[in-house]
Amino acid sequence: MLGGSSGERLCTPSTSAGPFRIFSVAGFQNRANDIVYCPPIVRQQSQHVEDSKAIIYFGGDVQDFPESMETNRDSRGYMKYNLENSAILLREAFPRSHIIVIRPVRMEFKTFSCFDNFVRGNNAGVPDHTPMNHALQHLEKLLQNLSQRLISIPENEILDQAAQAAAAAAAVAAAAAAAALTLSNATVTSESSSSSSTGSDSSQEMDIDILQVQENVTVDADGAVIFPIVSAAAAAAAAAAATTETGASTNNVSASINNGNNKDAAAALNSHQQESHSQQQQQQTLSKAASPPTTNNVEHCNNSNNSNNDCGAVSQATLPTQPQQPRPATPTSDNNPLWWRENLNLDKSKLVLIGFSKGCVVLNQFIYEFHYLKTLTPDDSSMCRLLSRITDMYWLDGGHGGQKNTWITSRSLLETLTRMGMNIHVHLTPYQVQDDRRPWIRKEEKLFTEMLRRLNAPITRHLHYDNQPANLMTHFEVLQAFCQHVHSLNQQHQQLQQQHGGNNEQPTTAAATNNGAGSSSNNLLDASEEAK
């Protein structure tokens, strides 16, 4: 499992706004989940923790970390919707919210998402819903411990890693631009020259791939970030890619480092850098990234888990495109890029629960537990605070491998859900509700939607891509359609506020969806007929 032993904890920030991987976050009793987290990118006007919002996302089959998806033949084609990209997509739709993507505790055959910590299921993740599986308690504990883990990471180390990632991204962009220019020139030259340029372009693509996977940062048990050598190697690879001969040999060294041969690879890199020192002097903007002393220090950093400050200094020195910038010794609330950590207490935030495909089984289990807590154990007030903070629930093209219970159809359960007053949203594609091989999905979704409407629940329903053939790609693309829908509602709300002289603060999800509820009522009726 990525992250090594239970004593190792990893996070991988690509910028100071994430996404971060936080491994083995403790929950209820002995349960734990890996989490991908993105902080808000737009600051709320209100500083009260109760006014903050957390988006909780449960993904579907196939969705995993990109390196896991890349090694699976069936998952590789859907890399665009890996868990980190999904977090970024949600962040764009909810820029004022904390984004929390909960990774399944099991990925059977690297394909089937199994959320055992929330709902019992078989090896394919087909759920076995029970009145109480402590899924809500697990979610509350995850939010509490995630807050503590995020606060415990030293601020300067997050910012240093963010600077490295920004420089690596700039190097990737430069390499891509150089590759595109080489390819463009090749089309107007002779065939032999074109062939040579193609080889050079292939080398550039290799550099890009190496850089893209070298952003891991280890967080030790005390919360300190330990910088690996991969960022420095990536920077060296990007620097050497600017020259033909140097680029080819550095690629091999960087690839060796990626494969875990750190000591030998570092020595090879050191030797290579001494041989090409005269060439690198001509590259004034890149020479710092590949000097021999830096290589030795990076090797030491990789072999010593206690040299955090030295590692951070070395990594910062190896950036090829971004010079060191002084930071205030004591950043204030106004200029601190990590303002999102102030008063961070995610379990006290307003909660929006989103399930996509297989992830909807977790939302269904929550409904069972709502009913248990509100009806079967009404005197138990231990979860009342958490339940009162759930404002919205989104079902995005729900489905699983079983032949029943894709959607909740029990009237008593849906009555309890309605009494809780949260906004309910259903987004669908023909892949799930127009598949004649699985007619129970269409029937159950129709019962779920129509019963909630008859109970006067605040529900909206949207059928996307209804004019396109049903296929797995449009099933995944419902994520984009849903995020675009939320973004459009927010823009409409902001325009209305500007027209009426109100403030420009982005609406809460509940307000935004209520604004759209009236306009979508006719669509809801039409969609119900389509689901027959």
UniProtKB/TrEMBL annotation:
Recorded superkingdom: Eukaryota
Pfam families recorded: C2orf69
PANTHER family: MITOCHONDRIAL PROTEIN C2ORF69, UPF0565 PROTEIN C2ORF69
The protein, known as: Mitochondrial protein C2orf69 homolog
This protein's GO CC annotations: mitochondrion
Compositional bias ranges of the Low complexity kind: 251-262, 271-284, 493-523
Organism name: Drosophila albomicans
Ranges annotated as biased composition (Polar residues): 285-301
UniProt region (Disordered), positions on chain: 245-337, 493-532
Classification of source organism: Eukaryota, Metazoa, Ecdysozoa, Arthropoda, Hexapoda
